[in-house]
Write a structure and sequence with these properties.
Blueprint: E1 3-9, H1 17-31, E2 38-45, E3 50-56, H2 60-63, H3 67-77, H4 79-82, E4 90-97, E5 113-115, E6 118-123, H5 129-135, H6 147-158, H7 163-173, E7 179-184, E8 187-194, E9 200-204, E10 209-213, H8 216-227, E11 238-239, E12 244-249, E13 254-259, E14 278-281, H9 296-300, H10 307-310, H11 337-341, H12 350-360, E15 369-372, H13 377-389, E16 394-400, H14 406-419, E17 422-427, H15 430-446, H16 463-473, E18 478-481, H17 491-494, H18 512-528, H19 537-549, E19 555-556, H20 565-576, H21 595-606, H22 610-620, H23 626-636, H24 641-651, H25 655-663
Parallel strand pairs: 3-14, 15-16, 15-18, 16-17, 18-19
Antiparallel strand pairs: 1-4, 1-10, 2-3, 2-4, 5-6, 6-7, 7-8, 8-12, 9-10, 9-11, 12-13
Helix pairs in contact: 1-8, 6-7, 13-14, 13-20, 22-23
C-alpha cells in the first residue's frame, strides 16, 4: 500500500546535513511510487526535546521541493547539525500516502498520525476498525484514518505493559495488514513492527546509520547511490519477517528483535521512561473536505432495468448468449456459433503444478514468485493457495490506476495480514489517471459507441509493464497470473468490428490482423469524435502497446487448478472474512470501480453484460445448467447504484446527465 521509511542516527554517525537531506529526498521519491496523494515526516530530536511533524496533501516530490520543507528540516534537525555537527540522536519516520481510510483533504488523516503522545506511520489497512471502537468504547476517536485506533490501543495497553508488550496486544486486536514505525513522547526508542513483512532494514555499522523502508529495492538503490563509495564493507539488507518487530535505541544504535506473538525475543525488554518530548505539528491548516448531499432516491430511479424487453431476445438454446452478441449466429438447432466453436478447457496435471512450486521455491525463504493481486475473488483465492498449499513465499503485486476500490484494498489487507505476505502496490498518479478517465467518458458521451467503451479502462494496462519491472528488480523467478479463462469477454473487441479469436492460454491475445482492425476502428472513431484527442491520448497509446504488443510471459495458476466457484467463495468467506459489496449479491468484479458502470451500459444498450459470457462458459464447461445461469444473470445485471454513483463522483461527471445520455442510446433489442 503506502510507502514508509526512516533513519536513525546519533552523535557517532558519520553523516552530514546535506547527506541526510539527500537520503531523505531520495527515499521520498522512491516511496512515492506506492502513494502520491499526500506525504509527511516526523523527526525526533533528542537535542531539542521535540518531535516535529510536517504533512501535506500533496505528492512527496512536491513537498520536498518546497521552502516549507527546507525550513522544517532546519528547525527539526537543528542549526548545529546544519553546520555538520550532530550532537545528539535523531529518529526520523516518513510516509508517502495512498489514501484509503480517511480523506486526504483532512490533514489529521494524513501521516504521520499524531495521537495520545505517539507519532506513527502505517502501511496497510486495519479492516476491523469499527468493531474495535465499539469494543473499547472508552477510547477517544477523533479522525477517520485507521491508524488512529492502532495508536489508541497502544496507549491503552501501555498503561499495564511495556511498549513491546503493548504492541503485541495491539496486533492481537487488529485484523488486516499493518507495518508500522512508531515514536513516543515518553520513550527514547523507535519501534518497528509488521504482520506482512513489508519492512526492510539496512544498518551501516561503520558509519553508524540505520535505515528502513517498505521495499528491499528502495534500500538497494539507496545504498548504491549514497553509501557504496563511502563504505567498503556492507551489512546485508534484512527483511523484518511477518509477525516480528525491532526496537532500536538511538543512543547507541542497539537493535533488539522481538516477536509479536510473544513466544520469544532475543533480548530482555527495556523501557526507559524519560522527560516527555514536545510534539509539534508544523503542517499548518488544511481545508476540510466538504461532503456533498444528493437525492440518491431520485437518482437511483434514473437507472433502467429493461428486463421484460431483454427477456424477449432470442438466446442460444445451450448457453445464454443473446442475438445481440457480436458475430453470433445460430445453427438449425438454435445453438450459437460460440458454443459450436468452444473448446472445453483442458487442465494440466496438478502434480506438475507442485513440481513447478518445488523448482522455484527459495531454500532460504526469500520471495520466490510475484503474484498478480487485484483483490478480486480469483486473485485472493490464488494467493491463499500459493501460500498455504504450494508453500511458496510470494510477493503480492497490485497496480492501482485509480479504480481499485477501498473494498478491494480491505480484502487485500485481510489476505496479506493473515497470510503474512508482503504486498507491493504501485500507485499511478491517481488524480491524473482519473482525469484521463473523465475525459474519455465525457468524449464517449458525445458519440456513444459500444466499441469504444474499453477506452474507459485503458489506464489499467500498465499493469503488465510494472509486473515485469518488479520481477526484475526483486530478482524473482516467476510471475504467477490468476486468470480465470472463463472470463473471456471477446464482445468488447467484437463491438469494434473484431471477430473473436480464442487463444487457449490467455484472455488478452489478438492476432496481428485483429490488432490492425482494432486500431483502424479507433482511428475512425477519433476522427469522427475529436474529443478523444485529449491529454489522455498518449497514456491510452502506451496502454495499447503494453497490453497487445509487449510480450507476456506468465505462469497461470488456473491452467492447472480447476476453477470451482463454490470452493473459492467458501474459502474466502470462512477463512478470511472476505468482504462483499452491499449493492450486489455477486462476488465477481466487486473490487473494480469501473465494472458496474460499463456493465450497465452494455446491459442497457445490448441486453447483456460480462455476466452472460461468464455464465455461458460455465454452462459449456458443465459447471452450471442453463436455467440456473439465467437466474444468476437476472440478479447480477441489476444496476448497482452505489457503485455507479461512486464511479461518476470519483471522475467528476454528473450522475443525472450521464445516465440520461446512456438511457437515450438506441437499444439493440428494440430494432424491428
Amino acid at each position: 500500500m503506502c510507502g514508509i521509511f526512516g533513519i536513525v542516527a546519533n552523535q557517532k554517525s558519520k553523516i552530514s546535513f546535506l547527506e541526510l537531506n539527500g537520503i531523505l529526498d531520495y527515499l521520498f521519491v522512491l516511496s512515492e511510487s506506492r502513494g502520491k496523494e499526500s506525504a509527511g515526516i516526523a523527526i525526533k530530536s533528542f537535542e531539542n526535546k521535540s518531535i516535529q511533524v510536517l504533512k501535506k496533501s500533496i505528492p512527496a516530490t512536491q513537498m520536498i521541493q518546497s521552502k516549507e520543507f527546507r525550513d522544517y528540516l532546519d528547525s527539526a534537525l537543528g542549526v548545529n547539525f546544519h553546520n555538520r555537527v550532530l550532537n545528539s540522536p535523531i529518529s526520523i519516520i516518513a510516509h508517502a500516502r495512498l489514501v484509503t481510510n480517511g480523506s486526504g483533504e483532512q490533514n489529521e488523516n494524513n501521516q504521520p498520525v499524531i495521537k495520545a503522545g505517539n507519532v506513527a506511520v502505517h502501511n496497510g489497512i486495519i479492516v476491523n476498525v469499527d468493531e474495535i471502537w465499539k469494543k473499547y468504547s472508552d477510547l477517544n476517536r477523533n479522525f477517520e484514518v485507521d491508524t488512529e485506533v492502532f495508536l489508541e490501543l497502544f496507549t491503552e495497553f501501555k498503561k499495564h505493559s511495556s511498549p513491546i508488550g503493548a504492541l503485541r496486544n495491539v496486533y492481537q486486536e487488529i485484523y488486516g495488514s499493518a507495518s508500522v514505525a512508531l515514536l513516543s513522547d515518553s520513550e527514547e526508542e523507535i519501534l518497528l513492527s509488521t504482520n506482512t513483512g513489508s519492512l526492510y532494514t539496512y544498518f551501516d555499522r561503520k558509519r553508524n546509520i540505520f535505515v528502513f523502508s517498505s521495499e528491499r529495492f528502495f534500500l538497494n538503490v539507496l545504498v548504491e547511490k549514497f553509501l557504496k563509495n563511502l563504505n567498503d564493507s556492507f551489512d546485508q539488507i534484512h527483511q523484518i519477517l511477518p509477525g516480528n518487530g525491532l526496537r532500536i535505541e538511538p543512543n547507541n544504535l542497539e537493535i533488539h528483535p522481538f516477536k509479536l506473538d510473544g513466544n520469544e525475543e532475543s533480548k530482555p525488554e527495556i523501557s526507559t521512561t524519560i522527560q516527555k518530548y514536545e510534539i509539534l505539528d508544523r503542517s499548518g491548516v488544511t481545508k476540510n473536505a466538504q461532503i456533498k448531499s444528493s437525492n440518491s432516491s431520485a437518482q437511483e430511479k434514473l437507472l433502467e432495468y429493461n428486463l421484460d424487453s431483454i427477456k424477449l431476445l432470442k438466446r442460444c438454446k445451450r448457453c445464454i448468449l443473446p442475438e445481440t452478441f457480436p458475430f453470433l449466429s445460430f445453427d438449425k438447432d438454435g445453438i450459437c456459433s460460440y458454443c459450436n466453436s468452444y473448446l472445453k478447457q483442458k487442465y494440466l496435471p496438478e502434480e506438475e503444478l507442485h513440481k513447478f512450486a518445488d523448482q522455484i521455491r527459495d531454500p532460504k525463504g526469500n520471495p520466490d514468485c510475484l503474484v498478480a493481486f487485484s483483490g478480486g475473488r480469483d486473485s485472493s483465492y490464488s494467493l491463499h493457495y500459493i501460500k498455504k498449499e504450494l508453500k511458496l513465499n510470494p510477493i503480492a503485486y497490485t497496480y492501482d490506476w485509480g479504480m481499485v476500490t477501498d473494498l478491494a484494498r480491505r480484502n487485500q489487507a485481510r489476505l496479506c495480514g493473515k497470510l503474512g505476505v508482503e504486498h507491493i502496490l504501485i500507485s499511478a498518479d491517481i488524480k491524473q489517471k482519473r482525469k484521463y478517465i473523465s475525459l474519455n467518458v465525457a468524449a464517449w458521451l458525445k458519440r456513444p459507441r459500444l466499441g469504444t467503451i474499453p477506452l474507459f479502462m485503458a489506464g489499467d494496462k500498465q499493469f503488465f509493464y510494472y509486473a515485469y519491472y518488479l520481477r526484475k528488480i526483486n530478482h524473482i523467478k516467476e510471475t504467477i497470473l490468476c486468470e480465470n479463462l472463463l472470463e473471456r469477454t471477446s464482445f468488447k473487441s467484437g463491438f469494434a468490428g473484431v471477430k473473436p479469436h480464442f487463444d487457449p492460454k490467455f484472455n488478452f491475445a489478438l492476432t496481428t490482423g485483429q490488432k490492425i482492425r482494432m486500431l483502424s476502428y479507433y482511428g475512425k472513431e477519433f476522427l469522427l469524435n475529436p474529443s478523444y484527442l485529449n491529454s489522455s491520448l498518449w497514456d491510452s497509446a502506451k496502454a495499447f502497446g503494453t497490453y497487445y504488443v509487449t510480450p507476456h510471459s506468465y505462469f497461470n495458476l488456473f491452467d492447472y487448478l480447476p476453477w470451482e466457484e463454490e470452493t473459492i467463495e467458501k474459502t474466502l468467506l470462512s477463512e478470511y472474512d472476505w468482504e462483499l459489496s452491499p449493492d450486489t449479491k455477486t462476488t465477481w468484479r466487486i473490487g473494480d470501480g469501473t465494472a458496474s458502470f460499463y456493465n450497465y451500459i452494455y446491459y442497457t444498450v445490448a441486453g447483456f453484460s460480462e455476466f452472460e459470457t461468464f455464465r455461458s462458459n460455465q454452462i459449456r464447461e458443465g459447471m452450471m445448467n442453463r436455467e440456473t445461469a439465467l437466474r444468476h444473470v437476472e440478479d447480477e445485471n441489476k444496476p448497482r447504484f452505489e457503485s455507479i454513483k461512486w464511479y461518476l463522483d470519483t471522475i467528476g461527471l454528473d450522475f443525472d446527465t450521464t445516465i440520461r445520455v446512456i438511457n437515450k442510446i438506441p437499444k439493440l433489442y428494440n430494432r424491428k
